[in-house]
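Customer escalation, tier 2.

The customer says the design service returned an amino acid string that "doesn't look like it belongs to this structure." They asked us to rerun it and document both sides in this ticket. The original structure tokens are below, unchanged.
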């Protein structure tokens, strides 16, 4: 090794340089002692798996609620001969259903992206 202070060649693992008598901080080999190369984050992969495994059924469940609500509201509005209040309920149901589909799509895309970050 070389002394970092005076630059002379000195015995490996020297604590004090025999040439300049300065304390030598050991220059660790980065391949041996350095921080290991940053591995792909397993957390993202796990998140992706969770999104994929839970997000889609959850979104489908939300979509079902949206459609049940929307369908019920539509039926009620038809039975009630298009009362204004029930039309709004039907609209809310349809919007909830559409939102649920968007959530499902975003969940699927996020799951795929996060999962692919593992590879
Ligand atoms: Zn030295």
């Amino acid at each position: 090794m070389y002394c970092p202070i005076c630059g002379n060649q000195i015995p490996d693992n020297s604590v004090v340089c025999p040439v300049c008598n300065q304390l030598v901080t050991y220059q660790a080999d980065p391949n041996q002692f350095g921080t290991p190369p940053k591995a792909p984050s397993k957390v993202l992969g796990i998140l992706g798996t969770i999104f994929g495994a839970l997000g889609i059924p959850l979104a489908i469940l939300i979509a079902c609620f949206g459609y049940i609500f929307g369908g019920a509201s539509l039926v009620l509005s038809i039975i009630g001969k298009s009362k204004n209040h029930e039309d709004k309920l039907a609209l809310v149901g349809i919007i909830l259903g559409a939102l649920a589909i968007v959530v499902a799509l975003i969940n699927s895309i996020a799951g795929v992206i996060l999962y692919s970050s593992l590879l």
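Tier 2 assessment: The sequence is consistent with the input. The pocket of zinc ion is lined by residues 3, 5-6, 8, 17, 19-20, 22 (CB under 6 Å). Residues 42-79 form the longest helix (38 residues). Sent an explanation to the customer and offered a walkthrough call.
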